[in-house]
Specification:
mainly beta
Length: 115
């Protein structure tokens, strides 16, 4: 799924990172596609990943654009997130590492069991 301009989002949760509040959500519509739903496992995994991420200066919102995946340019498993400021202006797009959770499937086609 290519990254496009995010046109609509759905709120997931408000989190506190380094004494700053950040809103976490996911894209429901971009200039290239629409997402009708997102599983609770993916939402939970993204929230946990954001809580451990380096928040860009001025960012107040993290928006999940692509669920956990790897790519040709980044072979690590990651979420793709857009970060926005308080005025809802795009600051940057970053890959965020997913949380390591034993026996949890964070993405429908990818399961990892840590031993």
């Amino acid at each position: 799924m290519p990254v496009n301009e995010v046109l609509a989002t759905e709120f997931i949760k408000l989190v506190t990172i380094s004494s700053r509040s950040s809103s976490v959500g996911y894209a429901t519509r971009t200039t290239g596609w629409e997402r009708r739903m997102l599983s609770e496992r993916v939402k939970d995994g993204f929230v946990k990943a954001v809580e451990k991420a380096d928040v860009p200066d001025g960012a107040t919102t993290a928006i999940l654009v692509e669920a956990e995946h790897s790519s040709q340019n980044d072979s690590r498993r990651h979420f793709t997130a857009h970060w926005r400021d308080a005025n809802k202006q795009h600051i940057t797009t970053k890959h965020i590492a997913p949380p390591e959770q034993e026996g949890i499937c964070l993405w429908m086609l990818y399961c990892r069991v840590e031993r």
